[in-house]
Design a protein that fits this description.
Length: 536
Amino acid sequence: MVKSRVLYTCQQCAAESARWVGRCPECGAWNSYVEGVRSTPARAGAGPDTRVRPGAARPERLADVSLDALERVTSGLQEFDRVLGDGIVPGSLVLVGGDPGIGKSTLLLQVASNVAGAGRRVLYVSGEESARQVRLHAERLGAVNGDLYVLAETSLDAVLAQVEAIDPDLLIVDSIQTVYLEGLSSSPGNVSQLRECALRLMGVAKTRHLPVFLVGHVTKEGNIAGPRSLEHIVDCVLYLEGERFYAYRLLRAEKNRFGSTNEIGVFEMEADGLRQVSNPSAAFLSERQTANAGSAVTVPLEGSRAILVEVQSLVAGTGLAMPRRTAIGVDLNRLLLLLAVLSKRVGLPLGSQDVYVNVVAGIKIAEPAADLGLALAIASSWRDAPIDPGLVVVGEVGLLGELRPVRQLERRLAEAGRLGFERCIVPAGDLRRLIGTSSGGEKGTGTRGGIAGRPGAREVRRDGLLIQGAQTVGEAVVLALGPLAPTGGGRRRSRDGVPAGAARSDGAGELGFERPTGDDDAGIAGGAGEVLETVE
């Protein structure tokens, strides 16, 4: 006899309740509970079921577990294998998410073709396209292969029956939101369907040592659609990111049980599919115009890979009482912080200026080490003076105007030197560490102090790259753009009594003009009447 009862399940966190509630007590989501039916077979007796299922796994000593058959499968795409941890692990369950039209199906269809071309049998299950549509897609990508099977089916029971018949070496389900189990009364994409389908596929992957890839839809917030438990079930969660109107795509690992989550893969979308970008720095800087003001090159870390990107800024006077701040590719709050530091600590009168910042090629930067590049691009645009095209900068800017050390500086410097850059401005703390490591004279030689009249600044030449240290963002501006003559008819005094243009311990006044007062200070970081805009 089968017992059925009504349960309400949260679509965000999969929490269950015997009655409907407006706000989930577990995750706080509103109106996320949907009705479902839970059917359980009734069993006579009150004790627990101690029967052993046929074929049930038995415990074994961890030291006796053999790894002989655990050979990773190459996908034919080095960037894809890098993110997974040097290849596809047999028996792994991988969830691939991304915005609509970003290239998820294209990427996995190319992987399927490459694996099939290596003599392995691949089953590509499409719940969104017919077999003819998949063939047209594969023709455009050049991914038609004899050992690549396509199945246009949404019933997971029918899919698993074909898995038994074909015995593939790789299974791809596109997408997990379109398949369903016939034994459940809920519709495809429902929380219970997603969870049960993922659990069934996980069981197949583990018992058959079959790698399974699932394509997942995302919500408007950019998260995988469905319960959070779906990401806990799978072994790896990959996100394909990028702007739809730009060619570059970044593949990141949010979760990886078989490798590091600090790796990214870079691809470029072309007419015949996704092409690997083996040298992202050169690709991102290929169309850089070095003679224009407002451009700076910085070296953020994407995973364990250092990538050179160009940051552009435009500072223009506004005829309105509401200056605009627009950020594309960087966090708007981070931009407002830097504008406040440049105004308070350096003395840039930006309170009456519109400020626009853009990261070239649609790249998004979240690392604080790119702060100095943003600050110098803004200063260069305000002064209308281009930065040395052979200069690259890196450093985190603090609220006091100081430059804070960054991690893995050597990797960033090596990437800058590889692309032919001649000079780099880094935080003074990082430079002291470099001088200490190169004191033996093998890689770094020739340190000296007193750069640009600043007693705290030093420099060292390392592998042909001149590395200069700055303690504050004001010192870095002087190193990059040079000092500026005092404005006005004489050396005016700012409101704290320090002559304009004089050296200050906090970096203010180093460019040779007095610090803003009154309304300028209030109009930098989200003051009243200011127009703030960010473009994601």
